[in-house]
Amino acid sequence: MDKIPFWEETYRNRDINTFPAEPNGTILEFEHLLRKDSVILEAGCGEGQNVRYLAKNGYSDIDAFDLSEAGISKLHWICEREGLHINAFTDDLAKFQFTKSYDLVMTFATLCFVEKDKWKHFIEDAKEHTKPNGIHIIHTFTNTVPASPDIAPFAVGLADEGEIKDLYSDWEVLQFKTYVFDDEHPGVPKHQHAVNKLVVRKTGIYREAGYARNQKESLCRFLEDGSIPAHNNRAENAIRPFVIGRKNWLFSQTAKGASASADMYSLVETAKANGLGVFDYLCWLFRQITAANHIYTDEFLESLMPWSEKAQENC
Prior knowledge:
The protein is an alpha/beta fold. The protein folds into 2 domains: 6-212, Rossmann fold (3-Layer(aba) Sandwich); 231-314, no CATH class. The chain contains 13 helices and 7 strands. A 7-stranded mixed β-sheet has the order 3-2-1-4-5-7-6.
């Protein structure tokens, strides 16, 4: 018989709290960044001590899910007793599908129970479904300390030290802490967990900085080759005629027609960029294609490109 996590047993007992009844301190620390109409999601909510605190303090648009049916059932029971409205439901973080965007996404000690590639996919989806200036609060167990016996059979996705922070290189880091703490639960001996705590904000300037970091090699290529310009003005100027004239072909009859138009403009602007007379080049090009009698090898097509020696000699 498969081992059952300790929390499944205590979730079924309505007389005890599986985890501390108070909300996580990080929520209290950063609550000032939220508005009362903030849209909130907690992944792996358990008995819901965090979302219950927020609901009691006037936040009304709260989603919370957990894999445990017993945990969600207990949360529903508590909400009914306390008159709280929380959209709590059973779901699997590894398969969760976002249907809206959030101002706050939070998860505490949950990611480690999901395979690493799947919780990373969840993080990427969560980032995409976070509103501008939205916040993520994440506490995740790391492999700095071995998984304690109570969770070892289930901790399939312990993070490497700093790994969670690396996933947010394009966001503003408001807080990052790494520490080890002592923990205990009903019926479970005292043990230790290693944690990375991360609070990040989705801001435009950091998205741009993240793009620059991610594209550093390409953006610095001009430093290695003097023939490469440090800007794209030439490309911008090349597409200007197409942009100016686009209303003339706004209603292309077919998608293929629009694609053919784009191909022709690319060819024309490339001919200009290579110093060819466009009319002369097109006349020469069509003669060459006609003479080829539908035999178009890669070598033949390469010889027709505006930069080829053959085109340069004849146009």
